[in-house]
Amino acid sequence: MKKYQKVSLWFFFLLIAFIQLFPLVWLANFSIVGANEFFSSKILIWPDTPQWQNYINAWVDGKFPKYLLNSLIVSTTTIILTVIVSVSLAYAFTRMHWKWRTPLFTVILLGIMIPIHATLLPNFAIFKMLGITNSYWGLILPYTAVSVPLSTFILTGFMRSIPAAIEESAVMDGCSIYRIVFQIILPLTMPAVVTVAVTTFLNCWNEFIMASTFISKDSLKTLPFSVMNFAGQYSSDYGSQFAVMVLTSVPAIIIYALFNEKITKGVTAGAVKG
Fold it and tell me: Is residue 39 part of a domain?
């Protein structure tokens, strides 16, 4: 590759990186801006006195620790259920031979095309009848149901790349089906499992519409509700709202940065080898 081609390629990548990162920079910038500076014509503003009080307001008045704990409970439980169900389904579709395998696999994959909010009203009617609105399960169940189809698709493609001889040896040694799936197959599919876990986390971490429909108790509200604590009928504390959004985005950014390489491996290995 010639020198000018390398320079052009690097310039293109830097431009893409700038476009991707600019919203985060803008968000962080406006989280330390005073209320009287928000309506400036400038794209970025460096205030004379950074308003770090916005972060204190976000942490205390936004009830950030309590909502953070609720989000962690919902997200962690959703991830665990999604991984268990998806690994079990993927193993059944790739290793077991049964009559309705292909039709059922097709039906499950159709779930990828159904957006979560399309199920809002039926879910609300069912959950209200079952009495699980205003509970963690009112969020965990729909989040898991929406995450399972894509997760099953990813894990199925990855599992097809694992030699069946490994399981045959385990069966000869007397391993049960549960030990084969969760002690042998699960560790081998860890890149794909990490991909499933991170994508599931990102999908349910900032979800608001389902949460606002099913949850009315303040003790069960998740992180997106922190922003609403600073929204009034006639005026809003925009600086604190931006500070809440910065604090909310930090865990997602850290998790994606830590597992970025495994996510890439999990997606590409299943796509290429499967």
Answer: no
